[in-house]
Design brief:
Elements (H helix, E strand, L loop, with lengths): L3 E5 L3 E6 L2 E4 L6 E4 L4 E3 L2 E6 L2 H12 L6 H19 L4 H6 L1 E10 L2 E10 L2 E4 L6 E3 L6 H18 L7 H18 L6 E9 L5 E9 H8 L15
Antiparallel strand pairs: 1-2, 1-10, 2-11, 3-4, 5-6, 6-7, 7-8, 8-9, 11-12
Length: 236
């Protein structure tokens, strides 16, 4: 499994995940460091659940000239069916939990906008602007999820305004979510890999990639005087 934390407003959009995948069950579990954030046309994507479905979905998206909902959900559903047919009913629970978030720059008639879409077995829609959205790992119980969701939402609304100057604090919140989840789940690493789209002073949309250990990101990005350019990366 994994965790994916998302946030979007009119000034910037962020999708952040960790860097661990897990194979096997029980005593045979193996944790492997793995790249889970990927660039796609006009943005970024990351998911939780079946690695086969997520990475197959992302590769298919890279071939698209336009990320329309019907095509995207059709690709996702087809991959789910293939995975279920290959691995049988033992895989069905993981299939139900599989979701992919896509952080996208959308061209419109009078300009451009940023959206985050989440695609799952029975889900394909956009997250609400101004609120954090988290795809949780399966080993965290619902009571904990509800408590943390409320905490993250209240903190985000208090800390973040719809202004590019607040981007660094939004990154810190995403790193904080991953930090908290990694302390509760062995399936999540304490590394934050974040894909960002932001609106420049001229109105154009630019992409940015930031990666680092959650403790370092929390320290640097919560400080108004820090130079956090060392976390920028040119990795796809």
């Amino acid at each position: 499994m994994s965790v994916v934390a998302c946030f979007v407003n009119n000034s910037f959009a962020i999708i952040a995940t960790d860097t661990r995948i897990q194979f096997g069950k029980g005593k045979d579990v193996i944790n492997i460091e793995h790249k889970k954030l990927h660039s796609i046309p006009a943005g970024w994507a990351a998911g939780c659940g079946s690695v086969n479905v997520i990475e197959g979905f992302i590769e298919e998206c890279k071939r698209l000239s336009r990320m329309d909902s019907t095509t995207v959900h059709g690709i996702f559903t087809s991959l789910l069916v293939d995975d279920l047919n290959k691995y049988g009913n033992d895989w069905s629970e993981l299939i139900k939990l599989t979701k992919v978030a896509q952080c996208l720059a959308i061209k419109e008639e009078h300009g451009s906008s940023m959206v985050i879409r989440v695609t799952g077995e029975d889900l394909d829609g956009y997250i609400e602007k101004g609120y954090p959205y988290v795809i949780w790992p399966a080993d965290i119980d619902m009571n904990t999820i509800e408590e943390l969701s409320k905490e993250f939402e209240e903190y985000t609304r208090l800390k973040i305004k719809d202004d590019l100057r607040y981007l660094q604090f939004a990154v810190a919140i995403m790193a904080g979510i991953i930090s908290k989840v990694s302390s509760l789940s062995d399936t999540v690493s304490p590394v934050c890999d974040a894909g960002i789209i932001y609106r420049t002073s001229t109105g154009s949309l630019e992409l940015l990639h930031i990666k680092g250990h959650v403790n370092e990101l929390l320290t640097e990005f919560n400080s108004e005087q820090s130079d956090f350019s060392r976390f920028y990366t040119t990795e796809d």
